Amino acid sequence: MSSMPAATRRLLLAAGPIIVALAVLPYVVDPYDTVLLSYGLIFAIAALGFNLLLGYTGLLSFGHSAYFGVGAYAVAFTLKYLKVSSMELFVLAGVLASAVVAALFGLICVRYTRIYFSILTLALSQVLWSLAFKFFWVTGGTDGLRVPTPTLLGVSIGAGQDKMTFLAHRYYYYVLVIFLAAVGVMWVIVHSPFGKALQAIRDNETRAEFVGVQVWHYRWIAFLISGVFAGLAGALWVPLNGLTTPDILLWTFSGEIVFFTVLGGFGTFAGPIVGAVVFNYLKTFAVGYTVYWQMFLGVVLVLLVLGLPTGIVGTAIRLWGKRRKTA
Amino acid sequence: MAAEVSRRDFLSRLGVTVGAAATAASVPLVGAPALIERAHAQPKGNIPDTPYKVGHMTFFTGAAAVLGEPSYKGHILAAEEINAQGGLLGKRKIETIKADEAAGTDANVKEMRRMKLSEKIDLFTGVISSGNTPALGPEAESLKLLTIFVDGCTDFLFDKAVLNPHYIFRITNMQSADGVTAAVATAMTWPKVRRIAHIHPDYSYGRNAFAHFNIVMKKMVPGAQVVSEGWPKLGTTDFTSHITKAIAAKPDLLVASVWGGDYVAMYKQALRYDMFKKMKFTSMIAFGVAPHAIGKDHPEGVIAGVHSNYYFNYPPQDRWPLNSAFVKKYLDRWKEYPNFQSEGAYTTLMLLKQTVEKANKLTGGWPDDEAIISQLEGASISGPAGYLHIRPDNHQGYKDAMTGFSVNSPDYPFQILDPNRIITIPIRNITAPPGWPAPSGEDTRTYTWIDKTWPTVKL
């Protein structure tokens, strides 16, 4: 154990109890809350990917709905044209499709930084949205494409078995395992020499270039990884939602991914995860309790930016640090 | 069938009627209230007095609210009426939880789950947009949630998404009926139109309206051709480009299924281009909005559809007391006139009440969902709009289709449907019958049924 880096040891120490709590959750709370948390975990995967660009590379993508949506539509098309309903194939299709699109869009976008980068990502995602929206006979237009319950590891949902039970147990664990794997992979990435190079690029592009980092190339790889994470999340999201609609390709959803990350705090590794889960609860609560839900979310965002500029996790870490110093 | 008939024969076979409504105005029906208030029988067995929780989802925000919010008002009117009598079976008060459909399809699916699993609702109802029922229908089935959709009337729900519904029902006429009604009305009113322009919202409702209008025109007005198509997004407020494109095509007729606040914006913009002077105009759903949303500046004499369902002055109020009572109650409660969604939502709860009472007679106590479902299948009710039949095989509501012509009347501060020129068509004659096979492609049952069985008019 002594050879383990201190950061990794801290992670395992902090994550252990959380993982145990997540694992026993379906036996403690309502199926409804478990399903709601599944949404949160899936959004968290997308937010983790997004934050590799924002938090670690210093690029604000305003078009991550594109990769999430491509992952989701890849699932729907796999079902529609190949007639398979295996979740493993769905995930594979989602990852591959989003990788292709992210690689392509990345080539165009990473040549620019700051506002130019954001606008380009936004514009490209809007192109995909309008394709999904306009090709009614292929994509179902705004009606979307329905995806019934898939098989997990070759096992289908039993005849007469309740879909909510399926979603709240088997599918939840499926999502949880992939989520933990994604968190692990991202942790390794950001703590690898590659991850350090990205942070160097974020902090000073010129200096990074002078010490031999191929800035353009590294950014492109980060963009690709980031897109794949979003695509993976999109693929996992579809069975939970039951269908895909162009809404998830629209810029407002990109905005939500930004919101997740800002809410949690983009300066920390865990920030996007916490932000995604909390935002999902916030939005569900707001839509359920008031017809003024947009206003509610808007006010929350404004208060957040003014009051907690480092997000929930950033603020928590700061308060914790203060307490430790005074103690 | 390759048979050819004359247009007059065709229309008489369809049973199309043009009604004069206002003739009996001076002869009030004696004893009308007695017809409506049936004797209140004592329910059998023990009925719990816990509230009966109903989730109602409709558009409360955005341009669609002018068509959708009346649904909530119709629902509340019925709920208050039932609660004033003690509730369902005299015991269970209806408690409504509302949700905004404008949150988007994905959020609506989540909200339906929340209502069922967290709020523990007994019944889900409402829903306006056809984009939402194909998502919510399967979800309701998997939640085992008793659901009566007020609208969201795409044929795809029961032709594709849920082929064998168990928990879900729907009240308003199917979308295909809407396109067919508009086309039949057009063919009988303006049989000489040949060049036709279209503007439809770009989702399943608009696509269905377009497809069914065209298949009927192919049969009834051979030689008619589509010269322009515009597909604005639902929620569009600027129609300028679509209007100018339609005008440029020099059509004889423009057909539009744009609805709600979108339609109000469209007709006001079209006025600026004198569009209605340059062509005839048929709409599937122009007067589907809350009636007061249509100003007196709206063009007169156009076919102004009501989603083939209901307009408050038809059936003629003095001849159909259920309608006069409903309009009066609605006007008293909300200070406005009802639209077809108000009527649909009102009838939904009245149908529930009637069904629960029937099921109680059979089972005693509070009937479970299975008992209610078995009584809903094949149910029939006399509503403000007329007779409504719920077909047992597909759980779809059927009532005679109607449309009409716009006219200004000194009696109302808004434009109305001309009560002397209401067009009605027996629903049986314009929708696919039970047992008609579901098509494998993208067409609806009604589409293939018309294509295969309707004769063509001889020119």
List keywords for this structure.
heterodimer, A: 327 residues, mainly alpha, 15 helices, 2 strands, 77% helix, B: 459 residues, alpha/beta, Rossmann fold, 5-stranded parallel sheet, 20 strands, globular
Chart the SSEs and their pairings:
The complex is a heterodimer of chains A (327) and B (459).
Chain A (H helix, E strand, L loop, with lengths): L5 H23 L2 H27 L7 H18 L4 H23 L4 H21 L1 H4 L5 E2 L16 H6 L1 H22 L1 H11 L1 H6 L4 H27 L1 E2 L6 H14 L6 H19 L3 H15 L3 H16 L1
Antiparallel strand pairs in A: 1-2
Helix pairs in contact in A: 1-8, 2-8, 2-11, 2-12, 2-13, 3-4, 3-5, 3-11, 4-11, 8-9, 9-11, 12-13, 12-15, 13-14
Chain B lengths: L3 E2 L1 H8 L2 E3 L12 H5 L15 E7 L6 H20 L9 E7 L4 H14 L4 E4 L6 H11 L3 E3 L6 H6 L6 E3 L4 H15 L5 E5 L4 H17 L4 E6 L9 H9 L4 E4 L3 H13 L2 H4 L1 E4 L19 E2 L16 H14 L5 H24 L5 H8 L3 E4 L2 E5 L6 E2 L2 E3 L2 E2 L8 E2 L4 E4 L19 H9 L2 E2 L2
Parallel strand pairs in B: 1-20, 3-4, 3-5, 5-6, 6-7, 8-9, 8-10, 10-11, 11-12
Antiparallel strand pairs in B: 2-19, 13-14, 14-15, 16-19, 17-18
